[in-house]
Amino acid sequence: MSAWWGIGAALLCWPGLIGGAAFAWLLLWIQRKLAARLQGRKGPPFYQPFFDFIKLLGKETVVPGGVNRRLLYALPMVSAVAVVCALSLIPVPGNPMPPFAGDLIVLLYLLEMPALCGVLAGYSSRSLYGQVGSAREAILWLGYNLPLLAAVLSLAIKAKSLTLAELAGVPLGPVHVAAAAAFLLALPARLKRNPFSIPNAEQEIIAGPLTEYSGAPLAFFELAHALELVALVSLFTVLFLPTANAPGPGWVLYLLGSVVLVALITLVATASARLTLRHTFRIYWSWGAGAAFLALMIAGAW
Amino acid sequence: MKLFEGLLSISRRKSPWVYCLNAGSCNGCDIETAACLSPRYDPEQVGTLRQGSPKHADILLVTGPLTLRTQDALRDIWGQIPSPKAVVAIGSCPASGNVFAGSPTVVGALAQVIPVDVYVPGCPPRPQAILQACIQAAHLLAHGKTHDQQGRREARR
Asked: Which of A42, A50, A62 sits opposite B82 (nearest CB)?
């Protein structure tokens, strides 16, 4: 019985829907504020992402002609629910979810859902910009997933387990350095941030797959994207920082690590211009593949 | 429900996203609008973001004296902005046609085609005035006083 309470609390409170959304909005605000300060602006107040979400919920939803209405509403909901489920599986400090064997595989599948829904959303919206954005996102997907998956799998090889809690408990070693490098390389493209903001390049293809979306579906896509940020940042801090071993300062380390990582991503995003798809693909299949290969080799050999 | 309505009203005031449209302007007002959106005046501190898609916008910023060839595009884009929405006319041209009034290629005042909520006087207006108009339009949206919201309320009655 208490296991079910744990699952419910993990999904709804922390790190699921409510706590996850609050933390996601905080991280989004840090991103926007830091980007603004780096550009010599004042930046938005801290409640901005929350009010943006509420305002979009209260707006009319325009269904473009010839688009399946149910699909238009279902895609953002599916992607938001998938990320909430993924978040509840990550063993961040205070997560009441009981660990089970193979939760790593469930997590990796659930984390792919927003990207998949984004691609489908662009193709099904009958907008030329959406279709171009979707094609770009699908190609980018093949690029960044190689280092990302290799980083996580190398830790799984090291831990000889597919349970996230055991992966987090692996003592820090050389495998963590190579795996963290591969993970960090993949992160900006996964979050569609600037050097790799190719699928949602606003100066070229308006808003990419989300061009035709408005109102509540757009709000839920934005929420899913924000929660994805929390999920990936949490996954990084849990796997590569010793948050699991120290229960007292575990919280502090987790929050600090998340904020620093978000600041780092923003710094890179603000300081760089957008690359073309060809260059991005080359980077991921040379440097990314190199880091992935190194991480797997170290995990196997050490 | 009442709580959500209150929250929605605040968030409409705090997060007005704008879409810029040039309806045959001489570019003077567009330069001032660009200056308004630049780091110096930073509209993001009042929540204003420039959106590329009219489906994401709340406020339509129109510059220029509305030529015959742009009026269909203007009506189309205005229709694509999801309700509730506000229209801000920037400069003297959308208000009256300015020096182009009476020209055979110009429709004239913007209000003949779509309802206008806020006028920004000037030829061109200053960036501060444009930012002020955005804030004013956001307040109208929050209190349900834009022409779009009033028209919908009338239609429901």
From this structure: A62
Question: What is the 3-state composition of chain A as percent helix, strand, coil, each rounded to the nearest 5?
Answer: 75, 0, 25
DSSP letter (8 states) at residue A101? T
What's the rounded Cα separation, in Å, for the pair A138 and A116?
8
Pairing mode of beta strands B118-120, B59-63: unpaired
Select from B14, B45, B82 the Cβ nearest to the Cβ of A214. Answer: B82
Give the DSSP H/E element, type plus range, for residue B86.
Answer: strand B86-90
> CB under 8 Å to A271, separation ≥6 — which residues?
A38
Q: Long-range contacts made by residues A267-273, C-beta under 8 angstroms, separation at least 24?
A: A267/A34, A267/A38, A268/A188, A268/A193, A268/A194, A268/A195, A269/A35, A269/A188, A269/A193, A269/A194, A269/A195, A269/A197, A270/A34, A270/A35, A270/A38, A270/A39, A270/A194, A271/A38, A272/A194, A272/A195, A273/A194, A273/A195
A58/chain B closest Cα distance in angstroms: 7
pLDDT tens track for B55-86? 999 999 999 898 998 889 999 999 999 989 99
> What tens digit of pLDDT does each residue of A83-124 get?
999 988 888 887 778 888 888 899 999 999 999 998 998 888
Q: What's the gap in Å between the CA of A47 and the closest CA on chain B?
A: 9
pLDDT of A248 over the 70 cut:
no
For residue B43, with 0-12 CB atoms within 10 Å meaning exposed, 13-18 middle and 19 or more buried, which class applies?
Answer: buried
Residue B2 token pair: 């009442």
